[in-house]
Amino acid sequence: MKISLAAALSVGIVLSDACAVHALSSSTPMHIQNLQGCFRVSYRFIEDGKHDYDIKDALEWITLREQSGAYVIQHYGLFGAEIIQHFNETWSLLSDGRWQQDVGPSRYTCVSEVRMGQLHCSSPGAPKPIRDRGREDYDLLNR
Fold this sequence. Notes:
Layout: E1 2-4, H1 5-10, H2 15-18, H3 30-33, E2 37-45, E3 53-67, E4 70-79, E5 82-93, E6 99-104, E7 108-112, E8 114-115, E9 118-119, E10 126-127, E11 140-141
Antiparallel strand pairs: 1-5, 2-3, 3-4, 4-5, 5-6, 6-7, 8-9, 10-11
């Protein structure tokens, strides 16, 4: 979903405030709190030499809110005057102390412990990413 800067501003998204870290309850784990904010990011997609590419020096805005005992994380790309809704994650603490991460819309789910502030899990057989929806040389991805 693309949102023009003018539309974003008209619904109350002000970039100077959008990247600010918003207060969460004191019980929100630090590894969750640290996911929100604005970040300068680079992505490197290495595959087969034919479909490889880089996205360098991009801005990513990540919002975080608590909802029904879970944490909903929304990723946005900031490209000039354009804000692009990228993907979302829902993190839920399970009764055994592990975390479940649902990446959407309808991308994949994984379950793992958090080690060194990071979730380490895999999701074999995940649907191909949205960026590859037009490709026909594969159907599933092992994440």
